[in-house]
Amino acid sequence: MTDEVESLFSRPLLPLANEADAEASCAAAAPRIVAEDGHAYVVHVIEKAGGAPDKASVEQRETVAEDIFSLARGVATEAGIELDTDLRFGTDVGDAILDAAEDIDATAIVFTPRGGRSWWDLFSGDVRDRLVRDSDRPVVVLPAQHADHSETTDGET
Amino acid sequence: MTDEELAKDLGPLAALTIGIGTMIGAGIFVLPGAAVKEAGPLAAGAFVLGGIIAIFTAASASELGTAMPKSGGAYYYINHALGPLFGSVAGWGNWMGLAFASAFYMTGFGQYVVTFLPVPSLSIAGITISGVKLVALAGGALFVFINYVGAKETGKLQNAIVLILLAILAVFTVFGLLNADLAKLRPFVPPDKGISPLLPVTGLVFVSYLGFVQITSVAEEIKDPGKNLPRAVLGSVIIVTAVYALVLVTVLAAVDNSLVAGNETAVVDVARHLIGPVGAGAMLFGGLLATASSANASILASSRINFAMGRDQIVSSELNEIHPRFGTPYRSIGITGGFILLFILLADVGTLANAGSVLHLIIYGLLNVALIVMRVSDPEDYQPDYRVPLYPFTPIIGAITSFALIAFFANTIVLLAVGFVVFAMIWYAVYARGKATKQGILGKYILSRSEQMPDAAVSATTSFQPDGGYRVMVPLANPESEADLIKLAGSVAKARNGTLVGVHIEQVPDQTALESAREEFDFAEADELLEQARIDADKLGVPIETHTVLSHRSFEEVFDAAETYNADLMVMGWGPDSHGAPGRAESAIEEMTHSLSYDVLVLKDRGFDPSRVLVPTAGGPDSDLSASVATVMQEFYDSDVTLLHVADDKQEGEAFLREWAEERDLGDAKLVVETGDVERAIESHAADCSLLFIGATERGLLSRLVRGALVLNVVDDVECSVLLAEQSRQRSLRERLFGSD
């Protein structure tokens, strides 16, 4: 029976929120993807206000997305992994990630912890909880690999 | 929905409410007291006159907005059309104008709060801060904080706020009309002053007309901007003007002038008089909402302007870093917030209003001039969906009225405006000119017609052109040659304190539209290539910017890109697949390469090894480029440089070569003089070297190279890498900046 189940890391989707996150998640996932000879997918969501001005210019955030994707590609190239990127726009970041996972039939949604629960989750909504609660596919939380990431206390990793 | 539709999600109503929401706060809730005190019922005329002046500029802003729906709005149009000197004025003006206006809205907010919440004044070190200012500071800090953490709910709230405000004002106006007595409007013009207060009061209340231009600052997010942008911009000015005039006329017709004049929260007292406590409460609530939404929208708009300024290197792009967690341009918002709080502390409400108005009037004037420049120069890509009616009268009247109104401000305010313009120009000259690379349409237009233009105009234009340092462009096509090209180009850039510009040209088949290619193509390979270039440039410690250009042509585009990115030097690879095959238009290539406005180095790469460099020279200006690159190699890679000269007379040749070398800082190079056949001499010495320089000994080397018509036996016969150098055809600054015209 187990041979019919696909490995978690054969087609993982990595949602990347920012550059530090991209570095941590890709570094943590890469060896596991290599081990399964998997194909990596990364998604970044530009949050839209949905009918009101956004908190930052779209063009500005597309530049950020490009930087994030470059980092991911750098890690993938070094590890010898095939990687596809997906830039999405959505009013709900969690929804957009779940849609992205569905579109590629991801074997898992994979991310690294981004610091502790913080008071500003009140403002931003907690994407992590949304993924864990509503995903119909496995959600894998990997420990961030490098010591310097876990030492960061301001929640940016 | 496509990504495009998702990214552009501001509908017509949302766009309209940005304009109305920013404008309606000030005019009706804060200013009537001060305006009526100065001008009596004529104040209503001042609001209408302000609206008329605004509508001309609104028409121009609409046309420019539909042609260029870009983030940054008014600043972007002015920078694009008039160049970065005026761009600096417009960017700083818009930024600080919004900070002054926000400080003004917040002070108005404070005036409303203290009517029901007695806030004591605070004395620190002999300086007393009034209760109004304390509330203003707290409110300002709150709205800066909200934008700093980016609560997306506030944006949607704006729509609701605007609708509530309009409803409150409508009810208020109906009550006013029921009690109206036209006799109270007489004398309409104050008998003691005549119409002289009209223009100064128009200047004061003009701070009520800043909002429409903020719509253009989020133009990139507006759905179907060709239709919705002009509707929102013009619509908001018309609606707001009508509301101001109607409300003020009914107020003054319904109550005694004395109840309004000099009253900071006049509409509240008028509502109490007309409707009772419920009316007063509603107007109080309205005043708080209105001033808050104006400030909130202004803070948001100012971060877009910062972003656009950073994109053009008028300010450091570090200002625009996005917060990793909040996704907001937190630095920009934080600094804007600092200015707002400072202005609240330093200036009274009238000064804040005047400063906000005057800075925007400068922008409005320039905006109209920008429109005229775009129409006159008529660049190919200027295709506005909306065109101002009655051109050229509309923008001319818009420019004249905007600039002329400045003269009616108090001297101190005019002085502030002048000082500010001078500051922004000095900022450009000292800080931004060495970084900015984008040339204005106006500058290009003048320089391209330098024969017909007055000399003064040409020389002024030339001396204000952006000068983004020494820029070395590297067209990158394949990963094999990337590292070598970056090493070569990077060392030259570093020696001159310059910047590398890595450009990848993605060829798009003719049948695919560039726009759809942008969405559908997979750029992973290109991105990897450019990423690698960034890594290699980092290793050398040279700043690099990278661009991917989509084009139907490939080879020709290289030369266009060099113009676009203001290259001083282009370093390109040369091989069978380097940059695609040139298209059919040989004459066009001839044209392009005939009038190079930058130096070109072409590397025939057989492994980049600059340890032993051979520079053959026959003298003349064309080997100067080779010589200067050789000095860079010497300095950077400790290269052993050998200079080779082939002469008929050995002694004369040696004397020539020694002098030539010393003049070009190559005195320590090994000098070799041969007689006989040039090619054979080069080949025999090339056997010992790792990199051979060949200067263009005749014109058109590059174009013949491009066509494959160049047969240089030397290049094929030697085993080392060969660097072909072709010097720019133009050395004068004017020509270097603008083609062969």
From TrEMBL, chain A:
It comes from the Archaea. SUPFAM superfamilies: Adenine nucleotide alpha hydrolases-like. Transmembrane segments: none annotated. Pfam families: Usp. InterPro entries: Rossmann-like_a/b/a_fold, UspA. Residues 21-143 form the UspA domain. This is Universal stress protein.
